[in-house]
Amino acid sequence: MSQEATVHALVSKGEAPSHPQTPPSQAKSFVQYYDRLYEKLGPQAWWPARTPFEVIIGAILTQNTSWTNVERAISNLRRERLLTPLALERVSFARLASLIRSSGYFRQKAKKLKAFVRFLRAEYSSSLARMFRTPTHELREKLLAVHGIGPETADSILLYAGQKETFVVDTYTRRILSRHGFVAEDVPYEELRALIESALPRDVSRYNEFHALLVQVGKHWCRPRGPRCSECPLQPFLESVK
DNA sequence: ATCCGGAGTG
DNA sequence: CACTCGGGAT
Length: 242
Description:
- By secondary structure, the chain is mainly alpha-helical.
- The protein folds into two domains: 27-46 and 166-239, Orthogonal Bundle (Endonuclease Iii, domain 2); 52-161, Hypothetical protein, domain 2 (Endonuclease III, domain 1, Orthogonal Bundle), CATH 1.10.340.
- The chain is built from 13 helices and no strands.
- The radius of gyration is 18 Å and the shape is globular.
């Protein structure tokens, strides 16, 4: 297994001195959004997980599910010493499903976990280090071909487990940015990802933080029903949209 | 367009 | 009670 690979990519190094290329029209806005949120909410130190493998398990378990439900499942797996690729391959489907029951969709997700560890062994001898040596674009395509890994999960794996420069779009991102008039609600995943990646400095810890900050906004203010715009940290930017 | 699903919230 | 959740497969 990988060594003491702690997953915090949040290295607080100094500000990037300059932006190489001329930013598109949204660039300034997204940078302002980021700065505003970071100032108001601070560093999120995101993705609480001990190893890259645990990040990946969490990324699958948290699909359309709140993180508190996932934490129980992860802690069950840890208690049973199942947080390794080979252990997850050995454990029976029924036992795995029952251990992750709290995360919802537990049969679907047990199948997805099995699919991933099988893929990892077949393609990379169960080594995440080998997997992440694959060129990012190629790896992304291969991950998308695995049962249970869609765009958001693939990007979460690349960014939060592999420290690759890939922005993670989720429900919150889409909701916030469409309400602020940047995109339509049903904007395709790839389109929104490309937009944000082109508008922010290409930097792993920046992508990491921005996604995490948007999650906070989505949870606390930009809620699906009854958004609290007047109390939202992004409220100043909403005025110009209305 | 439907299904998967437990757990917390109002 | 209805609604929502760090989505994805069919």
